[in-house]
Design a protein that fits this description.
Immunoglobulin-like; ten-stranded mixed β-sheet; 2 helices
């Protein structure tokens, strides 16, 4: 017989919300030891669950700061947010510390070990008022590294590249065979390459450390070819990758054509697309904003409009270029005028131009190399035709813009 108990029993435990909204984050046993952050490592902070009265499925996170007043903070997620044992990846802490110090991919200072402060938060999802904050603990001698290093690359290696050894001596050669990370930290890499007709064989390398340096990404672990002939569906093959793996993917190209390659290192999968258009959406880009496109607001609402007004960094060098001449026709017959935006976040940020002030600067000539600054001054090209096309190259290393105008035929 099944017995049922009343839900109204006064003996049943009930969830309560702590009045003081606090709980205890335990001081790490290694708090005063020298701790050097390293890629691939992690450490643990432990805590007690807030006094909710019953065991509940709570979620934990951690804020990190450079001072015990938490003047500026970065939030770090635990690898298991539902556990009171909060596991923090060294890479995540290093990234947070880089951000707190204002370091980015091009700006870093090697600092000595210093204190880092932590406090934890716990809350019950979808329960208002359940968020509690812990006491502060610290690691007093943390040495971090440059974790904000921009988008990474992997390399295509095989018959398409002439089977050149993937080592540092061939770095210049492999500049032309890089797959670029889709976003910082995504571990997904894409690239578009022209494959010749005939049989092709290739694999990938995450670093130029030689054939046997452990950086290979292949179709299987042994150094043997794996034919994927006949396994393409609508000219697309999707399958597993082995890391490390030295097996080549092999198949026959019926004619020379573009091939889009995607390698998901995190999930160990690949995708190959034969004959598709170059997938420029996968590459970092900047935007041309001005009367050539109609002075539309540079925000996400106009992302579709700006799809045709992008310059792309296709090889991870920080050099952005137009993939074809940009055609324009200025209705009132005015001179072409524009500046560059690095993100679509509105008029008042991310602008590169002729000067800081929001005033255009006249430029004469049809084939120019100009310096740019972080500012809202547009370039006004007084010699350029009102109807024509232009080719652009933005070099973020030299901080220059190259522009070449042609009149419409």
């Amino acid at each position: 017989m099944l017995g049922l108990a009343s839900c109204d029993s006064t003996d049943d435990p009930k969830m309560t919300l702590p009045e003081d909204k606090t709980f205890v984050l335990n001081a790490p046993a290694f708090a005063d030891q020298y701790y050097e952050l390293q890629e691939g490592n992690s450490f643990m902070l432990t805590c007690s669950q807030p006094a909710y009265g019953v065991a509940v499925a709570a979620q934990y996170s951690v804020e990190v700061a450079l001072d015990d007043k938490f003047t500026a903070v970065e939030t770090i997620a635990s690898s298991d947010p539902g556990s009171a044992k909060i596991v923090i990846a060294d890479k995540d802490l290093a990234t947070a510390l880089c951000n707190l110090h204002g370091f980015d991919a091009a700006n870093y200072e090697d600092l000595p070990a210093a204190p880092v402060y932590f406090r934890a938060f716990c809350e019950i999802p979808n329960v208002e008022g359940s968020r509690c904050m812990s006491n502060t603990v610290s690691l007093n001698k943390v040495k971090f590294y440059h974790a904000v290093q921009g988008q990474r690359n992997i390399y295509l290696v095989g018959s398409v590249t002439g089977w050149t050894a993937p080592d540092e001596g061939a770095a210049a050669h492999y500049e032309n065979y890089k797959l670029v990370e889709t976003a910082i930290g995504s571990d997904v890499y894409t690239g578009s390459f022209t494959f010749p007709a005939g049989e092709v064989a290739f694999r990938f390398y995450s670093a130029l450390t030689g054939w046997d340096g452990g950086a290979s990404i292949g179709s299987q672990e042994p150094d043997e070819g794996l034919s994927i002939e006949g396994k393409f569906v609508d000219n697309i093959y999707e399958g597993p990758a082995f890391i490390p793996g030295k097996g080549n993917w092999t198949f026959t190209m019926t004619e020379e054509m573009n091939v889009n390659l995607t390698v998901d290192v995190k999930n160990k999968t690949v995708k190959f697309e034969l004959g598709g258009d170059v997938n420029y959406d996968a590459y970092p880009c900047v935007y041309v904003v001005g009367n050539v496109e109609g002075w539309k607001g540079p925000d996400e609402a106009n992302a579709e409009h700006y799809a045709d007004w992008r310059l792309f960094d296709t090889d991870g060098t920080g050099i952005y270029h137009s993939v074809k001449p940009m055609e324009y026709d200025i209705a009132d017959g005015a001179c072409p005028m524009f500046r560059i935006y690095t993100k679509l976040e509105g008029w008042d940020a991310n602008s590169l131009g002729s000067q800081v002030d929001d005033n255009p600067k006249d430029e004469t000539g049809l084939d120019l190399t100009l310096n740019y600054v972080e500012g809202k001054g547009a370039w006004n090209f007084v010699s350029a035709p009102a109807k024509g096309s232009m080719e652009l190259v933005l070099d973020t290393n030299k901080k220059t813009l190259e522009v070449k105008f042609s009149a419409a035929e």
